[in-house]
């Protein structure tokens, strides 16, 4: 009987290195409570009506919030296509796309240079890249605002050399500059992770065979670090698409992104259904972007799991 019990306990025991499902329960419960539940609430709110008084929603099914994104009702009762929120969405995609392209161009040479240093230097440089994560994004954005302000260091230099028309703050350039400043490390790190595993003897062999620098970069180096590039694009473009702080602090309300409009509807406008509808639309567009990135990675033969 004792031998049978020992045999049964061995069968129920998890393999080495594996844990039972109960160990994952607290984490899964936390993720469901903080991510899944708010998403469900947001979707439900998007199909309700705005509260007549105060904040909140009126529990009456009405998909009007989605209609209001694209259709505007005029004072005479007629309707017309509303381009305001389409322009905001376009600006969000445009700023995120510019941010992704610029950070990619800046990150590839930086990541390759870090990957060719000694082990001690690589550790130091990676720590330097991650240093901005140690500081609040609010403080970093406020610091950048002081630097690019008309009365800041850059403005003082421009006025000293005679360029008196310098003005960046509260413009789309300031917003994109803030996005690049914040998301640059998110592009450098995954590209560096791929570049660190690259065998640079392949590049040397290509040089020995007569290949030019751009040919080596295009035919040898970039295909080898492509998984890091795809991961970096996803890590930069998707969060930048929903950024709020940079356009608010550096754009001054003149370069609204979709996240600013959502925050305004939950706050000042007190139109929770419309804010929820915009949030759902943003989630759908983000999901489409993720699927596109994964499809591109799959066609290239790279395995990049984003969802």
Describe the fold and architecture.
There is one protein chain. It is built from 14 helices and 4 strands. With 307 residues, it is mostly helical. The protein has 2 domains: 65 residues, no CATH class; 216 residues, Orthogonal Bundle (MetI-like fold), CATH 1.10.3720.10. The strands form 2 sheets. The protein has a two-stranded antiparallel ribbon. β3 and β4 form a beta hairpin. The longest helix has 32 residues. The chain is globular and about 75 Å long. The two termini are 48 Å apart. The model has no long low-confidence stretch (mean pLDDT 85). Its main location: membrane. Belongs to the binding-protein-dependent transport system permease family. CysTW subfamily. One of its GO terms (cellular component) is plasma membrane. Keywords: Cell membrane, Membrane, Transmembrane, Transmembrane helix, Transport. It is a multi-pass membrane protein.
Structural class: mainly alpha
**CATH hierarchy: architecture of the largest domain:** Orthogonal Bundle
The 3D shape can be described as globular
C-alpha Rg (nearest Å):
25 Å
**Class of the largest domain in CATH?**
Mainly Alpha
Helix content: 55-70%
- Helices and strands, in order, run as HHEEHEEHHHHHHHHHHH
Q: What is the arithmetic mean of pLDDT?
A: 85
- Unreliable sequence segments: none
Q: Number of helical runs?
A: 14
Cα distance spanning the termini: 48 Å
What's the number of extended β-strand segments?
A: 4
Domain count: the total is: 2
Strand order of the largest sheet: 1-2
Beta percentage is under 5%
Kindly report the name of the CATH homologous superfamily of the largest domain.
MetI-like
The major beta sheet can be summarized as:
2 strands, antiparallel
CATH topology of the largest domain: MetI-like fold
């Amino acid at each position: 009987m004792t031998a049978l019990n020992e045999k049964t306990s061995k069968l129920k025991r998890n393999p080495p290195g594996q844990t039972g499902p109960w160990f994952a329960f607290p984490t899964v419960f936390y993720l469901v409570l903080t991510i899944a539940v708010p998403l469900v609430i947001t979707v439900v709110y998007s199909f309700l009506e705005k509260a007549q008084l105060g904040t909140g929603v009126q529990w009456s099914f009405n998909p009007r919030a989605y209609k209001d994104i694209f259709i505007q009702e005029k004072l005479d009762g007629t309707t017309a296509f509303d381009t305001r929120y389409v322009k905001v969405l376009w600006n969000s995609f445009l700023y995120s796309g510019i941010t992704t392209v610029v950070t990619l161009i800046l990150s590839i040479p930086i990541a390759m240079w870090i990957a060719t240093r000694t082990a001690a230097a690589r550790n130091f440089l990676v720590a330097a890249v991650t240093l901005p994560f140690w500081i609040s994004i609010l403080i970093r954005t406020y610091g950048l605002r002081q630097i690019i302000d008309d009365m800041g260091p850059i403005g003082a230099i421009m006025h000293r050399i005679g360029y008196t028309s310098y003005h960046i703050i509260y413009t789309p350039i300031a917003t994109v500059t803030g996005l690049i400043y914040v998301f640059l490390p998110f592009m450098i790190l995954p590209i560096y992770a791929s570049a660190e595993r690259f065998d640079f003897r392949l590049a040397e062999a290509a040089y020995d065979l007569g290949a030019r620098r751009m040919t080596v970069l295009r035919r040898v180096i970039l295909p080898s670090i492509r998984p890091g590039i795809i991961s970096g694009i996803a890590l930069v473009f998707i969060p930048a698409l929903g950024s709020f702080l940079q356009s608010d602090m550096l754009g001054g309300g003149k370069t609204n992104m979709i996240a600013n409009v959502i925050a305004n509807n939950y706050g000042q406008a007190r139109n929770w259904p419309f804010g929820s509808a915009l949030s759902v639309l943003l989630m759908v567009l983000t999901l489409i972007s993720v699927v596109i990135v994964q499809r591109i990675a799959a066609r290239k033969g790279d395995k990049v799991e984003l969802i």
